[in-house]
Specification:
The chain has about 400 residues and is mainly alpha-helical. Helix content is about 75%, strand content about 0%. The protein has a single domain, classed as Sodium:dicarboxylate symporter (Proton glutamate symport protein, Orthogonal Bundle). The chain is globular and about 70 Å long. The relative contact order is 0.19.
C-alpha cells in the first residue's frame, strides 16, 4: 500500500479523475483551475530546449563518424514521411467507410467564430513556421554546435561543464515532475468545466471514430513496427505510462517530452539518436494530428453532402502531406492547417470548422498521445536500425515494476 501512494502514476490518475469530477459538477470552479495545468506546462517547456541542446551536442561530439549523424537524420525524415502518410491514408479510409459526418446537424455552425483560424491560414508559411518553432531552431543549432565541438582538440574543457549542467537539469526536471498530478488536475478540470461532457454528444460518432482509429494505428501499425525488432508495444506503453497520463491530463505532449527523452535513453537508445529523432519528430512526425486532419476533412465533406471525386481525394492527400508537417509550433495550428487545406481544396465550405470547435479540445488528448507514442516508437526503431540500441537496458527497464522520479536518490 505504501508503494502505491508513492507511485507517480497513481497520483496522476487520481488527479485526472478528480479534475474531471470537479469540472463536471462544479464547472465554474473547474475553469478557475486552468492556471495549474497551464503553468505546469510552461515550467516543463523551460527544460525542453536545454535538454535538446545538451543531448545533441554531447551525443554528436562523442561520435567518431559524423556521417552517421547525416545518416540518422536522413533515415528519420524518410521514416516520418512514410509513417505519417500511412496515418493520413488510414484516417481517410476509415472516415470514408464509417461516415461520421452523415446526418450531422449544421445548426452549430452559426455559433462558432473561426475568423482567427481562417486569418491564420492565409498568413501561414513555411518561413513563418521555422521562425516560430524554437525547437527546430535549437535542434539545428545543436547539430552545428556538436559538429564544431567534435572538431576541437581540447573539447573536454567544454564537454565537462555541459555534462555537469546536464546532471542538474535532469535533477531539476525530476523535481518538477513531482508536481505533474497538480498540472494534470488543472488541465482536466478546465477542459471538462469549460466544454462539458454534453458538448460531445452531437459529434459523438466523430469522436468515437477518431479515438478508435488512433488506437488501431498505435496497436497495429506502431505495434508491427516494434514487432519487427521483437519489442512488445504493450510493454513499451507500460514503460511510459506515467508520461502518457501526463499528456492525457494536460492535452500537451510538451509536458512529458523531456521525460520521454530520458526514458528512451534508459531503455537503451543511444543519446545522439534520441537527441535527433525526438525533437525533429515533435515537429514532423505528428501521426495523431495527421489522422485527425484527414478524418476532419472527410467528415466535413460528409456533413455538407459533398461527394469527393478521386481527383479531389488525391488533391487532399497531397495537400495534407505538406501542411500537416507544419502543425506544430504555431498557436491554434491544428485548425490553421485544416483551414489552409480547405482553402486550397476549395470544395468544402470553410465555415464547417465551427462544428469542430466544441469537441476539438477533447480530441486533442488523442492527438497528443498518438503523436507522443509515435515519436517514442520512431526513436526505438531508428536506434535499432543504427545498431545503437542496448537490449539489455531495455530488459532491465521493462522488468522494473515501477519507474519513479526518486529525488532522494538523485540529489
Amino acid at each position: 500500500m505504501k508503494k502505491l501512494f508513492t507511485n507517480l502514476t497513481f497520483w496522476v490518475l487520481a488527479a485526472i479523475t478528480s479534475g474531471a469530477l470537479l469540472g463536471h459538477f462544479y464547472p465554474e470552479m473547474g475553469i478557475k483551475m486552468q492556471p495549474l495545468g497551464k503553468y505546469f506546462i510552461e515550467v516543463v517547456k523551460v527544460f525542453i530546449n536545454p535538454i535538446i541542446f545538451i543531448t545533441i551536442s554531447l551525443g554528436i561530439s562523442g561520435m567518431n563518424d559524423l556521417k552517421k549523424v547525416g545518416r540518422v537524420g536522413g533515415k528519420a525524415i524518410l521514416y516520418f514521411e512514410i509513417v505519417t502518410t500511412f496515418a493520413l491514408l488510414i484516417g481517410i479510409i476509415v472516415a470514408h467507410f464509417i461516415q461520421p459526418g452523415a446526418g450531422v446537424n449544421t445548426a452549430a455552425i452559426k455559433g462558432g467564430d473561426i475568423s482567427k483560424f481562417t486569418d491564420g491560414a492565409k498568413a501561414f508559411s513555411w518561413l513563418q513556421f521555422l521562425k516560430d518553432n524554437l525547437t527546430i531552431q535549437v535542434l539545428l543549432f545543436s547539430i552545428a554546435f556538436g559538429i564544431l565541438l567534435s572538431k576541437i582538440s581540447k573539447r573536454e574543457k567544454i564537454i565537462s561543464p555541459l555534462q555537469w549542467a546536464s546532471k542538474y537539469i535532469f535533477k531539476g526536471l525530476h523535481i518538477v515532475m513531482l508536481f505533474a498530478p497538480i498540472g494534470a488536475f488543472g488541465g482536466m478540470a478546465y477542459t471538462i468545466g469549460k466544454y462539458g461532457i454534453a458538448t460531445l454528444l452531437p459529434l459523438g460518432k466523430l469522436m468515437l471514430t477518431v479515438y478508435i482509429t488512433m488506437a488501431l494505428f498505435v496497436f497495429v501499425c506502431l505495434g508491427l513496427i516494434l514487432r519487427y525488432y521483437k519489442i512488445s508495444i504493450l510493454k513499451f506503453l507500460n514503460y511510459i505510462k506515467e508520461e502518457l497520463l501526463i499528456v492525457l491530463g494536460t492535452s500537451s505532449s510538451e509536458a512529458a517530452l523531456p521525460s520521454l527523452m530520458e526514458k528512451l535513453e534508459k531503455m537503451g537508445c543511444a543519446k545522439p539518436v534520441v537527441g535527433l529523432v525526438v525533437p525533429a519528430g515533435y515537429s514532423f512526425n505528428l501521426d495523431g494530428t495527421t489522422i485527425y486532419l484527414s478524418m476532419a476533412v472527410i467528415f466535413l465533406a460528409q456533413v455538407f453532402n459533398i461527394d469527393l471525386t478521386l481527383s479531389q481525394m488525391l488533391t487532399i492527400i497531397g495537400i495534407l502531406m505538406v501542411t500537416s508537417k507544419g502543425a506544430a509550433g504555431v498557436t491554434g495550428s491544428g485548425f490553421i492547417v485544416l483551414a489552409s487545406t480547405l482553402s486550397a481544396v476549395q470544395v468544402i465550405p470553410m465555415e464547417g470548422l465551427a462544428l469542430l470547435l466544441g469537441v476539438d479540445r477533447f480530441m486533442s488528448e488523442a492527438r497528443a498521445i498518438t503523436n507522443f507514442i509515435g515519436n517514442g516508437v520512431a526513436t526505438v526503431f531508428l536506434a535499432n536500425q543504427e545498431k545503437a540500441f542496448d537490449r539489455s537496458k531495455m530488459e532491465i527497464a521493462f522488468s522494473s515494476e515501477v519507474y519513479e522520479y526518486d529525488v532522494k536518490h538523485e540529489i
